[in-house]
Model the fold of this input.
Amino acid sequence: MPPASSPPPEPPARRAADPAEPGPLPADAGALPAVPGGAAPRPAPVRLEALEQGSSLGRDAWRRLRKNRAAVVCGVVLVAMILGCVLVPELSSYRYDKADLKLGAQPPSLDHWMGTDYFGRDLMARVFFGGRISFAVGIIATLVSFVIGVSWGGVAGYFGGKLDAIMMRIVDVLYTFPFLILVILLMVFFANDQTVLYRAWKVMLGVFVENPADPSYFPIFQIVVVFAALGGISWLTMARIVRGQVIALRGQPFIESARSIGVGHAALIFRHLVPNALGPIIVYTTLTIPEVMMTEAFLSFLGLGTQEPLSSWGLLASTGADAMDLFPWQLIFPALMLALTLICFNFLGDGLRDALDPRIRKD
Done:
């Protein structure tokens, strides 16, 4: 007789559901509006592509600068003028220094779009060639002032104390001299052929040319003196700006961290402090270029800057002003080019100032 089979085991009793305990989650947690029991809904998973990407200071500044139409248009105009000054004298069929005494002064025509000067030289070629010198003076002299001002202000602001006091008192003393008069004195004493500086220039020029004493090289020497004189005087405000920025940054944690790992003084100044103060420095540099160009134009107007046969906008305006009643085009065209350049640099500088201002919040 077969043994009686045991009854099947009873299934385990279900535990009573706790109303406060959440139930199992489905695979798509984002589709669950709420958990059982009336608890707060679970947030949907955040997708990485939905996160807002960070933006650097340079990117934000470029975005704000593009919104400033006046600054963008002025920047494009400046680039076009620089390209014109580089290309027009090379592509023109008339040289800036080629005279035609039979032609004389002629008004604008199809052959000479800006007319000619007293000696029959094409004014368009001379205006654009003069733009080379005017832009070169503005940019190179500003770079000289940039190097001196950033170094001077960075060292004074970083070390502070007595060194800062001595260095800034020197700046204050130089501020007491009239800027233009000091530049004129430098030009009078150094931009002549009887100085030690000119003899050193001939020695250095002899490395590149066979006859460095050729008088045709003397106007180039005067241009170099203009570079040095303007750049050597216009760095004072730059030094003050850099000093103030360095003083504000030298106590920041990233400077203390760099100092704690053994970074030297020079690296702290020029690799950590100055790059973080570039905003105001760039703005002031942009505004210094037109100031230097205007000063060079005034010096050339007085006969202390660019000399014949070279040309600059100031020299052309000076010669054009002498015959403004008879030949007005000789003054109008170089004056318009100079005025347009100064206006564009000022608008561009204002746009950069607004774009690099850290107090402007992100839109």
User: Anything to note?
Assistant: The two ends are 93 Å apart (CA to CA).
